[in-house]
């Protein structure tokens, strides 16, 4: 009898460990955000997406309204094409705009959608024209360094 109780406890401990490993694997793969709500897909093209990844959030007013579905490269325009899977509960005007933003100074990147003023809403398969690419920290640092170097040359003449 005592042996059966120990076996049950060991079995529960193993199941708990397996559940913890599954949870960690889902968190590491950013798959814990799987949702079964209905979505509609819209696309946008960006010159630079920075570190944006599939399953990154799409936010409006700080609320997650969808996820990044697929990222591909358009070899005709040489831009990144991003498919957004927006939650069916949230409808946005056709003239909405997209921005790639960063959570904090060095946080993960996400897409912000700003609603426009059109009376017609986006539908499945639409493309959002107005986009703003990611701000790359290295580019900002380079601009700062070059502007300081240019200031130094002007002061020495």
UniProtKB/TrEMBL annotation:
<feature type="domain" description="Mce/MlaD">
    <location>
        <begin position="39"/>
        <end position="116"/>
    </location>
</feature>
<protein>
    <submittedName>
        <fullName>Outer membrane lipid asymmetry maintenance protein MlaD</fullName>
    </submittedName>
</protein>
<dbReference type="InterPro" id="IPR003399">
    <property type="entry name" value="Mce/MlaD"/>
</dbReference>
<dbReference type="InterPro" id="IPR030970">
    <property type="entry name" value="ABC_MlaD"/>
</dbReference>
<dbReference type="Pfam" id="PF02470">
    <property type="entry name" value="MlaD"/>
</dbReference>
<dbReference type="InterPro" id="IPR052336">
    <property type="entry name" value="MlaD_Phospholipid_Transporter"/>
</dbReference>
């Amino acid at each position: 009898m005592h042996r059966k109780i120990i076996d049950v406890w060991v079995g529960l401990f193993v199941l708990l460990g397996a559940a913890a490993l599954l949870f960690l694997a889902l968190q590491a793969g950013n798959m814990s955000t799987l949702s079964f709500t209905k979505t509609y897909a819209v696309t946008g093209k960006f010159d630079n997406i920075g570190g944006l990844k599939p399953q990154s959030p799409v936010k409006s007013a700080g609320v997650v309204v969808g996820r990044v579905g697929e990222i591909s490269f358009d070899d005709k325009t040489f831009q990144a094409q991003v498919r957004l899977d927006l939650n069916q509960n949230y409808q946005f005007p056709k003239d909405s705009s997209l921005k790639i933003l960063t959570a904090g100074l060095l946080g993960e990147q996400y897409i912000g959608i700003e609603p426009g003023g059109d009376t017609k809403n986006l539908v499945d398969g639409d493309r959002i024209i107005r986009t703003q690419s990611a701000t790359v920290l290295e580019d900002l640092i380079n601009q700062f360094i070059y502007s300081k170097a240019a200031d130094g040359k002007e002061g020495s003449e």
